[in-house]
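Prompt: For my understanding, could you write out one protein's sequence and backbone structure tokens?
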Amino acid sequence: MLKKIENVKVYTEQGNFVPGAVMTEGAFIRRILAGEAGNRKPEADGAAETIDGGGCYCIPGMVDIHLHGCGGKDFCDGTREALETITSWEVSVGVTAIAPAVMALPAERLEKALAAGAAYRKEQQEGKAVPGADLAGINMEGPFISAVKKGAQDARYIVPCDVGLYRRFQDAACGLIRFVGIAPEEGRNTADFIRQVKEEAVVALSHTNADYDTAMAAFAAGAGHVVHLYNAMSSCTHREPGVAGAVADSPSADVELICDGVHVHPAMVRAAFKMLGAGRVCLISDSMRATGLSDGQYTLGGLAVNVRGKRAMLVSDGTLAGSVTSLPDCVRTAVSEMGIPLETAIACATANPAKSLGQWELRGSLAPGKLADLVLWDECMRLQAVMKAGEWIRR
């Protein structure tokens, strides 16, 4: 059935808003009508259903390539119930595709979570799952990381990167792992690891204490991504630029950035945009299971976490333990508190992560032939409606 969402400000692939309308047919976008064309009578377009967008911003569904959970569940729970909760909650706030993260955990538990994710994605593709965000990939944040920069991960299960173990995990995930994180300073064969797996997944620098030269060598070998820039990595100073300095000098690599107002100072957020350019920044939530719930004690990667307000911290030592903020709220914070233009922040939560996932042809923008995943925000960035694959989830 043809649907027309009219009287909206459409976010274009050029990164600006134009008045107009969006037409969908089934699960996909059929046409973008700009200017006066968007105000034609419904019968002129053959639309069976017309929705007045009330002058709202019409933006692509957001793509979160790094989160752990929400609504009391974590991807590493490895259950169908957890995946239903996470995907349903995410789409309800305007996130239409996710790549949840796994951490340093026992290999058998990781395999269980990865296999559950692959099975649930198959259900989604067959139309057997509840409406929710697409499980578009998996972000293997751990276990191939540094104990020195472990953050809120369990040091007992950290191991050097290993091609055999990675392939064991990828097999369990039925090829759904899109990012595999490593600390390139750990182990002797990280360059070989990168060269062997870079065609199967994006190799990311994750929880690493690498210096500038080591990070540059990893990028030269084919690493193409940095997990939550500034957090759980070597410091960036005028004499020791570390991973942040190396990625600035590696134009083929992109970065994740948490804009929850806790993880990164606004000045350093602005510095990242100036240093890298907006096209290389993917906003992420890094949300843990307490997201959407009240303060209290929760767990992340088997470790006890206290949640107070916008902070999630390990009970043991106060280390930040993910965020309790959704990706749309990170976009709002980036715009309202950090000075990032709305058009730029939207690209960093839609187009850029879709490209990083290798799924730009399917999602990340409003264009004919792409999934009809869209969100309506009012002028105050408040959520008004969510469409997933041509069906209204919230309206």
Remarks:
- The chain has eleven helices and 23 strands.
- The mean pLDDT is 96.
